[in-house]
Amino acid sequence: MIIGPMPVLSLRAVTALALAAAALVAAGCGEARPRATTGTVGAGPNATPPSVPRQGVGPADPAERRVIDDWLAALRGGHEVRAARYFAPGARVQNASQVFVVRSLAERTQFQRVLTCGAVDRDAVSGGDHFTIVTFLLVERPGGFCGSGVGQEAKAAIRVVGGRIVGWYRLPGGSYQGDAGPQVQA
Question: Which terminal CB of the chain, N or C, has fewer other CB atoms within 10 Å?
Answer without folding.
Answer: N
